[in-house]
Amino acid sequence: MQAGILAATLLNPDRSFSLTELAEHSGSSLASVDKENKLLEKAGILTSRREGTIRLMRASGDGPLARPLAELLRLTYGVPQILGEEFGSVRGVLRILVGGVWADRFAGLPGPAPESIELLVSLQPGAPADEQGLHTAARRAEQRLKRPVSFSIAALERGLDGLQIPRQRPGHPVVEIAPIPPRQVPPASGVVLNGHDLVIQLVRAGHLDLVGGPAANGQPFLDLAAKHISSAERLAEVSPDSAFLLLTKAAQLIGSGLLARQGLRPALSAPEQAVGTAVAAQFGHQFSQIELLRQRARELDMPTSRDSHILPSEAKTYLGTVRTLLAAAREVAGKLALFH
Question: What is the pTM of this model?
Answer without folding.
Answer: 0.60
